[in-house]
Write a structure and sequence with these properties.
Strands 3-2-1-4-6-5 form a 6-stranded mixed β-sheet, with helices on both faces. The longest helix is centred in the middle third of the chain and has 19 residues. It has 244 residues and is of the alpha/beta class. The protein is built from 11 helices and 6 strands.
Length: 244
Amino acid sequence: MRKILGSMRKAIQKFNMIQANDRIAVGLSGGKDSTALLVALNQYQHFSPVPFSLEALTLDMGFGGMDFTPMIKLCHSLDIPYTICKTQIGPIVFDIRKEKNPCSLCARMKRGALHDEALKRGCKKLALGHHADDVVETFFLSLFYESRINTFSPVTYLDRKGITLIRPFVFIHEKEIIFSKACQQLPHIKNTCPADGHTKRAEIKTFIQSTRQMIPDIDERVLSAIQNKDQLKLWFDIQGVNHE
C-alpha cells in the first residue's frame, strides 16, 4: 500500500487533482481497483497538504445477486458516507434494448448516473479507479474499434455538467494492486453483469498480454507515446492526416 500511495500522491500532485476543501465522490463499483482507490484516498487524507472530504457512490445496476454488504461495512469502518444509487441500467440495456454490443450504452448510462448523483451529493469531483493498464487498453480499444488515437486524461473537466473527473491511480499498474497484500485483504463484490469477461476490453486485455511476450515493455512504450501526444498531433498536422 505504501508504494500505491506514493504513486497516487505523485499523480495527484503532478496533475493538481485535489484542491483545498474539495468534496470528492469515489465511484465504488466494489471491484479491486475502486475499493483500493477508496482506501488509498482515505489514507492520503492524513498527510495531504490540503484538506478534502470523501464520499462513496455505488450504482446498483439492477442485476440480481448483488450483495453490497461488504462495501457498506468498509465505508462504515472508514467513516465515509456511502450511497447506493438504484438504477435499471442493466434491464434497459439487456432486456429492453437487447443491445448486441451492450458495453458502450451501459458505460454512457453509468457515467451519466454517477455524475448526477455526485452533483446531487454536493461533490464537484468524481474519483475513478482507472489505472495505467486501463489507459493502455483504452488506447488500443479506440485505435482498433474506432479508428481514433485517443484515451482518457488524468483530469477531465466536463463543462456541461460542471464536474471534474480525476484518476489518481493513473501511474499505478494493475499488477501492483493485485499483488499488494494490503489490497488482497480488502472486500470485493462479485460482478453479476452477463457481459463480464466477454467484452471488447477483455479481448484487448488478452491481446496486450500476448503482445508482452514479444514486447515486454509495451505498456511503458504506449504510455510514453500517449504522453508525447502533442508531438504526434504535430506530425499528423504536417502530413495533413485526420487524426480524430
